[in-house]
């Protein structure tokens, strides 16, 4: 049986490209989750590992979808090899239980970990630079002032969401959330 595993690190990221690649590869069952790879507790990954039997193949799009570090990748693949499970990493090929296959796995795992570490480092440097600015604010900027939201909510008393959105430029979803917050505060 050919199993696929797809993972993205945040809720905002899209799994679709990975899922499509796994389907195109002929995976019969695909497990997916939105969970950071730095955490050991990835429920769907544990689930697919438990299902795998000798002769099965586990397919992932890239090695970093599968393991948290080089050591983790090597240990996981070794454990799968011991169970007679093949590992197919789409951007590397079939990882074989041979000296050459294990060497390639080790090198590619090292590069994947290095790449992830560099991204984290650059992100931290960017945040540190941004914090030095006088106008720095953590998180997403507020698009509308409180007074603008209050005005839009008043308009909702006599107009539809679409009408208020057209008048103010404040999206329907923002208006719905603001109205819910307002109702919660009034109760």
Automatic annotation (TrEMBL):
Residues 1-134 form the Resolvase/invertase-type recombinase catalytic domain. The keyword Magnesium does not apply. The active site is at 9 (o-(5'-phospho-dna)-serine intermediate). CDD domains: SR_ResInv. SMART domains: Resolvase (SM00857). InterPro entries: Cry35Ab1_HTH (IPR040652), Recombinase_CS (IPR006118), Resolv_N (IPR006119), Resolvase-like_N_sf (IPR036162), SSR_resolvase (IPR050639). Keywords: DNA integration, DNA recombination, DNA-binding. PROSITE patterns: RECOMBINASES_1, RECOMBINASES_3. The keyword Ribonucleoprotein does not apply. This is Recombinase family protein. Pfam families: HTH_49, Resolvase.
